[in-house]
Amino acid sequence: MRLRAALVLLLIATPALAQYSEIPRSDDGIGKVYMGREIAHVMGHEGADWLERPERISEEQPDRVVDAMQLKPTDTVADIGAGTGYFSIRIARKVPRGQVIGEDIQPEMIALMKENVAKAGLSNVHPLLGTTEDPNLPPGSVDKVLMVDAYHEFDMPKEMMQGIVKGLKPDGQVVFVEYRGEDPAVPILPHHKMTVAQLSAEMGAVGLHLVRQYEELPWQHVLFYGR
Predict the structure, then answer these.
(1) Is residue 10 part of a domain?
(2) Which of 78, 90, 109, 147 is deepest in the core (most CB within 10 A)?
């Protein structure tokens, strides 16, 4: 009884531990489960070339994604898990009087992003090093947050989303681009895809709800969440 009571007290004192569980690791997962979903294995900076592959234009149609975001020229946009800055650079050109925060947790990606931003001749992209628990966004500062094929790899999804929500303006939106988990024909490993139902459940845990979706890409959802 004493041991059981001690375990209960430990879970109460450390709620982050209570919301995650462990299972045997899948080939494309890390063995950590959040709200019934095994978190996917993260792609490291060693895979940076994949982010810049020419086929991405046809497979993911990034310009259509940016257009679907309905950005204003003065918007502040956070690109979370920005990697090499592939989307940050495209967004920056749409917000000439605004700014883009290109966040990543890998210093190597931040370095690559800085190189690409400099080559593009842009001054309104600001690389930002975050952590697995906090993107370090300034509170109440961001109009739109974009995550492209990134959220499903977050080690601490609830804590990251709490930090993202904290960084949003009251009418801000979080935009997810995720491969369609409902469609087995999408040629992506299963834990690197998300269903609308799963993502909406996880966003509900941080006070966000689905306000709009764009379904004109070949393989991916574009899902917009707000308060």
Answers:
(1) no
(2) 78
One-letter amino acid at 94 equals K
CA distances, 22 to each of 6, 43, 66, 118, 133 (Å): 20, 20, 36, 42, 18
**CA atoms of 222 and 68, how far apart (whole Å):** 8
| CATH code (residue 87) | 3.40.50.150
Look up residue 46 and give its DSSP letter: G
* Domain contains 167: yes
Query: ∠11-14-17 over CA atoms, to 5°?
Result: 75
124 domain residue, yes or no: yes
Which residue type does 187 have? Answer: P
- Of 71, 111, 112, the closest CA to residue 93 belongs to 71
In total, how many domains does the chain have? 1
Is residue 17 domain-resident?
Answer: no
Q: Which of 23, 91, 95, 104 is nearest to 63 (CA)?
A: 91
Q: Flag whether the pTM goes above 0.70.
A: yes
Range of the domain at 62: 43-226
pLDDT digits (tens, 9 = 90+) for 7-51: 333 333 344 545 999 999 999 999 999 999 999 998 766 556 657
Structure token digits, residue 190: 């299963």
pLDDT tens digit sequence for 131-146: 999 999 999 999 999 9
